[in-house]
Amino acid sequence: MILQMMQNICMYFYVSVDIYVVLIFLLTYGLWNLKRPHSRFPPGPIGIPFFGSMFQLRKDPEKVVKKWSLNHYGPVMSVPLANQHYIYLNTYEAVQAAFLKQGSKFSGRPNMFLFHQVSQNYGLALKTYGEDFKVQRKFGNKILRGLGFGQKKMEDIINREGDHFIKHLEKYSGRPVNIKADIYNLTSNIICGVALGRRFEYDDPMFREILFCTEKSMGDPHDAWKILMLVICPKARFLPFIRGANERYKQNQLKILGLMKNIVKEHKETFNPNCLSDFIDAYLYEQQHGLGKGNNQFEDRQLEVYVRDLFFAGTETSSNTICWGLLILLHYPEFKSKIEEEIAEAIGWTNTPSVSHRENMPFTCAFLQELVRFRTLTPGGSPHCTTEPAELFGYHIPKGTMVMANIWGVNNDPSEWPNPEVFDPYRHINDNKQFVHSSKIIPFSMGPRVCLGEQLARMEIFIIMVKVLQHFKVEADAELPSLQPGVNSVLCAPQSYKLVLSPH
Ligand code: HEM
């Protein structure tokens, strides 16, 4: 009996010792991860072991970080998240000093398991910064920033799609409708026109499948926080309740890539070097006759992921901006009337809009600039990482550190934009009633990784907003919908709302 008791006590003691050792190890490891990586590392909150400041940032992280930056830590600060320190750049000057003036040091992309498991280092948006990236980016700039198949061609694609869209909307005439899905179809078809050289009927099963997978990968509300966990802490994929979200993300991505592969294959079969009508054609030409000749940088897999990137990056961003634009018009009918006056004078009610009309539409330009300031679509931009050690604002940032541009924080900086929470296009109009372009609003980020589709996005937002106003009186239903953003993991999208479109 006594022997038995002694044995139990020993067992208990040994088990307890094991547990204590494990606990002490975990605590030391957790505290070790919170240790700042360098004595001159930017300041920031300390956080708690294993989680850092994750709990404080679970809602509107960019707003919280901007507040910390204004109240305590200054424009360049650090935030511990899971087991790493992130740098946040909170003012225009800080983003400019890093992304623009030291572009080659601050334009890396972290190797994030979630994305890399499908696309490896192909495509553009997630590609490691280096010579290969620069070659691909240069080609993309040539095509999408106007020099490839020309600004006119892009305008034609947007106008053609815009006409389909307007025709589609006519059927809703006079009754309250939520047109979010229709706008999504529109912007997807614009990217399809530019990248794939084709448009899809809105009910085409292939199109519906691409859209379904894109939408699910970008922001399935059920998986949103799990996806965020996977981005911040890839090892979370081994947790049983997270594994499913990773698998769903992967399957959706593989489906999109499969479709892109088929479309590239079709292009190759009918390729004519004398008639390049879309991004894939231009790429195939480069593969055979240009930069890709004699090297494998322009291989098919690279093209498939590149086109996927365009589709992914260019659909929801533009569609949500247009959704915000129409919602804001409901709230400010006086601004809508001013834009309508400019349409009447500069374009007319039946002529086709062109970006060249912007010159004579200062208020419309001011409205659109205020739109992308007031509702910043990608509040935290895309994660960057340092490719080598860097000095910034007197701080030392080691190689491989995660760096985020707080784009929301820049666009809502009270020292630049007094009362930033107020929507006021007149901020961008000078005493001579001219539009003043501001480089200090950075919805598309800046530097070597600035949004590749910026020109295209600006063109489509302008042309589509004008087209809708040319054809319809845009009015609110009985109740004015909320201007507060809805819930989404990466993008700041409006809550779903209804409006009434009736012909003029
Ligand atoms: C209102 C619409 C849009 C907004 C607000 C937006 C914003 C952004 C932002 C903030 C980034 C991250 C830049 C960085 O890493 O610092 C980005 C990257 C990118 N965007 Fe856009 N974007 C829009 C539309 C588009 C469109 C229409 C396309 C397609 C043609 C596109 C293609 C891309 C690509 C390919 C990248 C990755 C660039 C790289 O890593 O080098 N975007 N965008």
UniProtKB/TrEMBL annotation:
Organism: Clavelina lepadiformis (Light-bulb sea squirt)
Protein name per Swiss-Prot or TrEMBL: Cytochrome P450
InterPro entries: Cyt_P450, Cyt_P450_CS, Cyt_P450_E_grp-I, Cyt_P450_sf, Cytochrome_P450_fam2
Assigned protein family: Belongs to the cytochrome P450 family.
This protein's UniProt keywords: Heme, Iron, Membrane, Metal-binding, Monooxygenase, Oxidoreductase, Transmembrane, Transmembrane helix
Residues annotated as transmembrane: 12-32
Pfam families for this protein: p450 (PF00067)
Domain of life: Eukaryota
Cofactor(s) in the UniProt record: heme
